[in-house]
Amino acid sequence: MELVIVVLGAPGEADRSTSPANAAFRLYTALDRRVFARGDDALTTAPLGPGIARRSRMASDQAAAAEVVRAEDADVVVALTNPKSHELATAARLGLIRLADASTSGVDLFDHVATGDSAFDVAVELVEPNAQRVSVIARARVAVDPISLHRNRNHAYWQGARMIAKVLGSLAEERSAPRAPGRIDTKQRPSARPGGRTLRRVASVGRRAGERQFRSRLFREEWLIAYRERRPPLSALETMQGFVPLPPTLGDSVMDPFVIDVDGRTHLFFENYSFEARRATIATVELGPGGLASTPQVVLERPYHLSYPFVFRWDGEFFMLPETSKNKTIELYRAERFPDRWVLDRLLMRDLVAVDSTLIEHAGRLWLFVNIASRGTAISTELHLFSANDLFGPWRPHRRNPIVADAGRARPAGPIFEHDEALVRPSQDCTRAYGRAVVFNRIDLLDEGDYQETSVARIDPGWLEGNIGTHGYASTERYEVVDARRLSRRFHLTSSRRR
Question: Fewest CB within 10 angstroms: 61, 100, 209, 379, which?
Answer without folding.
Answer: 61
